[in-house]
Each structure stands twice: as C-alpha cells, then as structure tokens.
Design goal:
8 strands; AIG1-type G domain-containing protein; 10% strand; two-stranded antiparallel sheet; alpha/beta; Methane Monooxygenase Hydroxylase, Chain G, domain 1; 2 domains; 59% helix; 438 residues; Rossmann fold; 14 helices
C-alpha cells in the first residue's frame, strides 16, 4: 500500500504533467494588464531564490526544461544577496506584465538607512505606483528578522496594510513554524503563502547527478520532488497572482511619506537651532542697546543739569521735552558755551531717539522670532500626529524616542537654545507617554 505522501506526490505529478497551458492558466492577471510588486526580505530569507522561481514560472518554463537546462550560472548567481534595488520585468505568456521591485536585503553590510534611501529613490524615480508589498520570510523561523520588521513598519505606511502579503519560503505546511502574533497587530491577518522552493531541491538533484552518478534511485526521487514542488509552486503563485490582481493600486507619492518624517523633523530641529541662535543674538543686541541707551541718557542728564541747575531736580522725567533745554538756565554759562552745550544735548537726544528706535525694532524682531519658533514647535506636533497616522504603532514610540535623542544631542550650544529645545522635547515626551499608555 502506498503512503499518503507517495499518493500526494503522484497526484501532484499528474497535475504538473498536464499541458503547459493548463498549468499556467493559474499564473495570469485577470483584472490588470500590469502589476508592480515591491519585494523585501532579510539575508537568507529565500528572497533571491523566490525571484528566480517567479522568473521561471511566469515565463512558462516547465519542470523538465528546468531540470534539463540547469546550470550553476543560471541558478547560483549572486542572487544570494541583493545590495541594490533591482527591477525585474516579467512578461507572462498571456501578455501580462509583472514588475518586481527587488529591495536590498536587510541585514547586509549595507545599513538600513542606506537601504531605505535606495528604496525611496527607486520608488520615486522608477515607478509611480505599486499593487502589493510582498515580504519574503523563512518559514522555519518563528518571527521576522528585526531589520525586516523595522523596515516594513518604518518605511511603509499604515495605509498599505491591505496590500501587504507574506510568502514563507523554504518550508511547507508540515514544518512551518512562524508565529503570526509576532507581527504588528495590523499584519497578523495579512495574506500569506507557504512555499517550498523547488530550486533548492533542483540543486540537490544536480549535486547527486554530478557527485553520485550511479545513485539513480536518489536522483529519481529528487527529480520527482522537483516536479512536485514546482507544480505546488505554480498553484501557490497562482493564488498569489490572483490576490495581487485584486489589490487596489497605491501611489508611490503616498508610500514615500514615512520616508520624509525624520527628514522633516530634522529640518525643523535645525530651524529651531537657527532661530534660537537668532533669538540669542537679538536679545544680546537688545541688552547692548539698553546699556548704550543708559550711558547716553546719563551723559545727557549731566549736560541738562549743567544748563539748568536750578530746575533739574524738579523735572519728573528725562528728557523733559524736545531739545532737552530750558533757556532760563545757569547764569554762570556764557552764550558761546551755552550754545555748545545745547548742540551737544541735541545730538545726545538724537542718539537717544535712534537707540530707542533700534530697541523697538529689536524687540519686534524678538517677538517675530519667538512666533516662528512657536510655529515650528506646532509643526513638530503636527508631524508627530501625522506620522502616527501613517506609521505602524509598534514602531512609532521608538521613532519618537529616536527624535528625543536627536534633540538632546543638539542641546549643547546656548542656554536659550537649550530652553527652547527642552520645550520641544517635552512635546515629544508627552506624545511618547500617551503611546506607552495605549
């Protein structure tokens, strides 16, 4: 009696051995003529092999052709690590076009910020919309690699949730171990597919053929496995294609918004630093004007007193009026000296007026700068709220913490800057406290 496994293998082989047209009938786009899919995954997640399988299946390669035409150059290329964004254009047998934006692997020597920048630039320059984001994960792992999860939650907005699917490579239903509860709540019900990639078995098959040419039984068993998993892969990717075909198209302009969050926050922080420095200069200038004004007024009082000794003490404020002199002044001063003192006093009063004008304009500039700083603070509050609406909540608190650290790193220059930035940090900490309480 045949085991269930043997029966299933035979059944799948019969399914595969139908005509190419019947097998490939599932690999088609019914609603759209073209789709664009962004592909992300960590190193060793199986993403490179998944891309290779897509290319073979959607171009109509049959298992017998795959086995016959195998070469290390074809399937063992440095697909193994993707360090730059690669665009694959696949034309299906029925004329559909599938564009794959293959993102850099997360966890390579290329840090995540560099990978994020490459993805953003490609999404802005090379494509205008995407139909789906496909996360490739190792089905033997319990959870996504942290770099991959961070990339999804930081790079892509919450509005894309309905367009995110997960393919678990390198496993089948029997050894799939992934815990969906390890994902952010928004992704726990994401569409998912378990796929054992036949290309791994294909490599084993050719290894046996080359290294153990007399072991025909092992080679035949592996050949049957290649055909079975290739057939199952076609069925799985047919379901995947049907899902992509049904997804609503997302503009990359909207998708790039989370990319800009840190840039906008950093720009605003730099603007606060600049305006705080301007404010400090203005306040120092105002203080200097005040000192000069007091010095000129003191000198003017002396001249006024010299001109008008009898009434000086009765004047409630200084200067007493335009010109600052009263002609019935000291009888001990001759006309020439009097005119000279009057001229000096007029110049001092003019200087006082000039300094008062400077003081008024500087105070106005201070108020305007304070208003600009308040506007920037409000912009930062708005950025926090806007980003919270865009971002997956699991990573938002971490982003706020990063921004607080960014602000604290910038606190070293002047007391006024520290005071202003402290106020902004309080805004962020308040939002972080609210998030922690959710």
């Amino acid at each position: 009696m045949k085991s269930n496994t043997e029966s299933n293998t035979e059944s799948n082989l019969k399914t595969y051995q139908a005509t190419k047209e019947q097998v490939l009938s599932v690999l088609k786009l019914s609603n759209k003529k073209a789709v664009t899919v962004a592909l992300v995954g960590a190193v060793d997640s199986g993403k490179a092999a998944f891309v290779s399988l897509l290319l073979e299946l959607f171009q109509g390669t049959e298992a017998d052709d795959l086995i016959r035409d195998y070469s290390d150059e074809r399937f063992n290329q440095p697909h193994s690590q993707t360090t730059d964004v690669t665009l694959h254009n696949i034309t299906t047998l029925d004329g559909g076009v599938i564009q794959i934006l293959d993102a850099p692997d997360f966890g390579t020597k290329d840090d995540r910020l560099s990978a994020e920048k490459k993805i953003r630039n490609s999404m802005q320059a090379d494509i205008h919309s995407i139909d789906a984001l496909l996360v490739v994960a190792d089905g033997h792992s319990v959870q996504l690699a942290s770099d991959t999860l961070d990339a999804i939650t930081e790079i892509f907005p919450r509005t894309l949730v309905g367009n995110i699917g997960v393919v678990f490579a390198n496993s089948d239903q029997r050894d799939w171990k992934f815990d969906m509860n390890s994902l952010p709540s928004e992704l726990r019900n994401a569409e998912r597919w378990v796929l054992y990639n036949p290309l791994a078995t294909l490599q084993k098959y050719h290894g046996v053929k080359n290294e153990r040419p007399d072991d025909k039984q092992a080679a035949e068993e592996l050949e049957d496995e290649v055909k079975m998993y290739y057939s199952l892969g076609a069925e799985t990717l047919g379901r995947w294609a049907k899902w992509v075909d049904s997804c609503s198209i997302q503009s990359t302009d909207k998708l790039c918004e989370p990319f800009e969050f840190k840039t906008k926050v950093d720009t605003n922080i730099n603007a606060i630093g600049t305006k705080a420095a301007d404010l400090k200069k203005s306040e120092m200038a105002l203080e200097e004007i005040g000192v000069k004004l007091e010095d000129v007024r003191n000198e003017a009082r002396k001249v006024f007193k010299e001109l008008n000794p009898d009434i000086y003490e009765t004047i409630p404020s200084f200067p007493p009026g335009t010109g600052g002199t009263i002609r019935s002044g000291s009888p001990d001063i001759d006309d020439f000296e009097r005119e000279e003192l009057v001229s000096r006093l007029d110049k001092m009063n003019a200087k006082i007026k000039q300094l008062e004008d400077y003081s008024d304009s500087t105070e106005k500039a201070i108020k305007e700068t304070e208003g600009i700083i308040e506007t920037i603070q409000n912009d930062i509050r708005r950025l926090i709220d806007d980003f919270y609406k865009l971002s997956f909540s699991q990573k938002f608190a971490s982003n706020v913490n990063d921004t607080i650290q960014m602000l604290q790193d910038k606190k070293a220059e002047t007391e006024i800057e520290r005071n202003i930035i402290d106020k902004v940090i309080e805004v962020f900490k308040g939002r972080l406290h609210a998030l922690d309480g959710q």
